[in-house]
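tool=predict chain=A
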Amino acid sequence: MSRVRSVAVAVAMAVVLAACSGRGNSDSGQSGTAGGDIVVRASYPLSGPLSSAGASAAGAKAYFAAVNDAGGIKGRKIDFDVSDDAFDPARLVSNNKEFVQRDKAMIVLNFGGISVAARPALGSAKVAQIVQGGEKELSDVGKFPYTRAFVPDIAWEGELQGRYIAQQMPGAKVGFIGFNNAFADSQLAGLAAAGIKPVKAIRLPPGQSDVASQVTELKAAGVDVLVVTLGPPTMGALLSYLGQINYKPKTFIGSPYADFASTVKPAGAKNVVGALSYQWLKDPQNPAVHEGKTLVEYRDRMAKYAPDGDPNSSFTLTGYGLAAAVVSALREAKEVSGDGFLAAWDSLSGVEDPLLIDGAKLTGEADGRLVHQYRLHEFNGTSWVPRGDIVNVVQAGIAG
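tool=predict ok
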């Protein structure tokens, strides 16, 4: 679907929801109650080219179920359900419309840049939208005050990568490979902010596995440092092919896909050795953290509450961590409403979350996001191991 059509659908939905809500400007939004429950709904790509991201839903389900078993939020249970959008903006908008009109949802969880199409409508209904997406435009909380993004802006990671390259690899010929969407735009903007302009920037559609011609282009351009953020199967195919032809540029792997499931196993560990990644989230398959307390509890909860989910997927853990952040804000909220929840979300400070790398905390900032801390990691053939200290992108002058 074109961006123009997506916006048209979103505007039409906003008009419908505004008419149906019957709310004035002073209304604080839906309380999300159904028999006293707090209604949380999610639209995720359970099918289609980014179905791997749909694993997030199982993680969220497990966390919310564990909270309900422990008594809920101030005695109220969380009513959670998920619908498939196949990473289609029209389906996502339709799903969100049903969440608001049919289910009276107070909070809606979405995945990826296509979620921007639902911002106007959810804002009109005063329903909180939390997006699992790193696109820069999702930080525009001034224009869209009911939308927040949970994961960091990928532009911050791009700037961290760019600063490292400029300082440690002066004169490098940098190449970039990313998705053909706004996610790549954001990461390239971050690289540019650090003074890095790739000599070759390549964009691919999700799901592509034949990358031979793209690698040929990179090699012909003399690329010796490669920045890449691609999901499976593309990431594995790319790194595997680089190893096959013995082409070894120094590689920065974007944090969303620097995990065993997306990268290490499909590429082969030997083809990832020496790769760098500014990481903010744990990988449930990384031996260096696998037996940590939070991950042991995570796997136990997955087995009990979402046995069909894949606990080895970093997306599953991301959904679990997102649900934990939602619960943290609900517990701090002065009133159970979209406005009350978002006020608490923005005020969170120094909150632990099972998703984050050790030593990192959630803290709300003016950009509406909660994750602002990274640590450089290097793959040593067995594990991703930390290099250097945790970096706060607000304190580093990158965010904020």
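The chain has two domains: 3-152+292-369, 154-279+374-392. The longest strand covers residues 384-392.
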